[in-house]
Amino acid sequence: MMQGMDASKAALLEAGLAKIRARFIDSLEDRIDDFCAQLEILENPATAEAACTEIRAQAHKLHGICGSVGQPRMGALAAQVEHHIDSLLAGPRPLNTDFVDELLNALLDEMEQNVDGA
Asked: What residues contact residue 53 under an 8 Å CB cut-off, 6+ apart?
């Protein structure tokens, strides 16, 4: 319990946070679908750069919320995806997206475990 906060306020706060966490877990199915769609686009060298840009944007959003909903591992994986894509896009072409694929699959595994555990 937070110092100086009575039990009823702490209970209300915890209940609110639990609802936020539940909504986040519910949103993971759509996020998984979006990432999977981008993985397919990533396979085509002609669309790989656009897929990387979209994956990076989705990973950035996910990374941003994970700390607030008690998902540090998922957040760290999303950050890895984001930072690797930043490096990749700054480098030579054609893009070698093998590691993006590997990192994204690790992130997807973590997301699916959270959905399955809910």
From this structure: 85, 89
Taking only the tens place, the pLDDT of each residue in 48-104 is: 999 999 999 999 999 999 999 999 999 999 999 999 999 999 999 999 999 999 999
Asked if 24 and 67 count as a contact pair (C-beta separation under 8 A), the reply is no
Domain boundaries, the chain: 28-117
Instruction: Using a cut of 0.85, tell me whether the model's pTM lies above it.
Output: yes
Q: Residue 4 has what DSSP assignment?
A: T
pLDDT of amino acid 1: 44
Q: Cα–Cα distance between 18 and 4 in angstroms, integer? A: 21
CATH topology of domain 28-117: Four Helix Bundle (Hemerythrin (Met), subunit A) (1.20.120)
Q: For the residues of 17-54, what is the DSSP string, one character each?
A: HHHHHHHHHHHHHHHHHHHHHHHHHHTSTTTHHHHHHH
The pair of structure tokens assigned to 88 is 């990749």
Peptide bond connecting 94 to the previous residue in cis, omega within 30 degrees of 0:
yes
